[in-house]
Amino acid sequence: MCTTSSAESIEQLKQYSTQIEELARKLGLDYYPVDFELVPNNFMMEIAVYGLPVRMHHWSFGVRYIHQLIRQGMGHSRIFEVMFPGDPCRAYLVNGNTLPENTLVTAHVLGHADFAKNNHLFAQFMEMAGGHILEQAAARAHRIETAIQEHGQERVEAVLDAALALEPHIDINRELHRSLYPTQPAQKTEPEQPRDPFHQRYHALPGEKSMPDTQSLAKRVSIPPQPEYDLLWFIAHYAPEMEDWERDIFLAVREESYYFYPVFACQIMNEGWASYWHARLLREADFLPHDLYLSAIKAHSDVVRPYAAERQLALAVNPYHLGFSMWEDIIEKQGLEAARRIVREEDDFGFIRNYLSRELIEKLELFVYEARDDGDIRIAKNDVHAVHEAILAPKFNYGAPRIAANHLHVDGSLQLVHDNQSDGRGVDLFRAERVLEYIGKVWRRPVTLHTVGERGEARVVTSKRM
């Protein structure tokens, strides 16, 4: 079937899109306006690897582009659309898709838009990071290009190396815009004076009055006052010799990380919800030609299939398939209003733990597997808790090891600590050395990371002295 690149097919897509939007509103979908744009495949590839249509340039994005190109060439990855939540939402469709595929994608995007407007996590982070990510990202990219002209490609790239290496290391429990640490130690407040005259008489007997803790007042304020997991924020504000333009790059990467966190944390819910709605909208769109509908449904089946290829079982969860199956199960058993409540209140952690039942696990043939040293793969278990945690483990802490800035020494050296007990995720020591090398260039003092090795033994990784 022809691609959506001719004037006639574009006009047909506009007509179908308008009718699908009318149907979506009629069925109760509530979303910010969506701006659709048809783009060539190479531009879509750039959006996918950069994360945004216009973003700061860095060599790591080129590596991702090559990786994506190879995967697409091998038939393992095909990008149908990219949608950016906001007010308005921005959606990019590939003009190389067929008309039925882009009709399905239009309905899919409306499901995403409904989810993004109504989910609490999307609403919270959009309020902090703003609803105009494309314009904001373009402005940041322009500032970085200006920095390159003023300070040189090598210096700017060194800062980007460090900032992008720490891209997921934010504290999603803290605000995007937050104050610096207090500069004075907390003062102990005097106990409230008793109002009862009888007790007031005996409140300050000789020898009973406590002496002021002058030693604690004289202590230097500890930085950070508690383990700080927002490494991008901490380095931007407390690196001993960081210049303003360097701080701006760190804070730009951090702000974009806040914007993308809900997409990461709600991927299964979001893709499943969009898939449920594109299937329903197509099913109820009686204005679509029959042959177009059949082709679109074929594309739907390819998107939500549980298999990697033909009948070979996939060892990785397809979020479209899992999310779609879960929403169908929820709506069938509890109704659409219950599903809408879940959309508002949950992220993938609550969604999987609360609504992926044993019955559905068995139906979808989900299991936890172990890879042996000889290359064989063995099914280890398929109990509910094990399957839940196997699905969610890669999502913990934005997919990164849980590492905190623990202490800023008097000489300006920085100590980082890996909280391996809470995240259960090891650290790749070779990668850790590279990242510490990047951080050391912007911190300009020694940086150490305290972690554990494969056998649980204490390990210390140190940056090169700058």
Automatic annotation (TrEMBL):
Pfam families: SpoVR (PF04293). InterPro entries: Spore_V_R, SpoVR_N. Residues 9-377 form the SpoVR protein-like N-terminal domain. It comes from the Bacteria. Coiled coil: none annotated. This is Stage V sporulation protein R. It comes from Noviherbaspirillum autotrophicum.
